[in-house]
Amino acid sequence: QVQLVESGGGLVQPGGSLRLSCAASGSIGSINDMGWYRQGPGKQRELVATITSRGFTTYADSVKGRFTVSRDNAKNTVYLQMNSLKPEDTAVYYCSANIRISGRWSTDNYWGQGTQVTVSS
Predict the structure, then answer these.
(1) C-alpha span between 88 and 103 (Å, rounded)
(2) Which run of H or E residues covers position 31?
(3) How far apart are alpha carbons 26 and 84 in whole angstroms?
(4) CA 30, CA 46: separation in Å to the nearest integer?
(5) 19-44 per-position pLDDT tens digit
(6) Contact, 22 vs 112, CB < 8 A?
(7) In sequence order, what are the residues at sequence separation of 6 or more whose Cβ sits closer than 8 angstroms to the Cβ of residue 34?
(8) Rg (Cα) of the chain, in Å, rounded?
């Protein structure tokens, strides 16, 4: 069994910062790519950032220069540091990860439960 648990969401004023965390637990052999998605009110889900097992990152244009994705492989955790937050960043943020279960060769994609980020004055 593998689970992803997110934390760190909340209410913040425009220009503020939040740091999201997503920890994977269970019978984990290895974690490949991890990423963050978000879905705002009345909007499509969009990819925010990704990070490979080696630490290579990609970002959506809308968050470049403001958000930073990182990971701690020893802790099976991915982070999303969000700075200079804007009201348009308001969304439910979801963590995803491609994980190989211990003792198996194949991988599966997993999702966190989502955490609400609200940017408002």
Answers:
(1) 43
(2) strand 28-39
(3) 34
(4) 25
(5) 999 999 999 999 999 999 999 999 99
(6) yes
(7) 22, 50, 51, 69, 71, 78, 95, 96, 97, 98
(8) 14
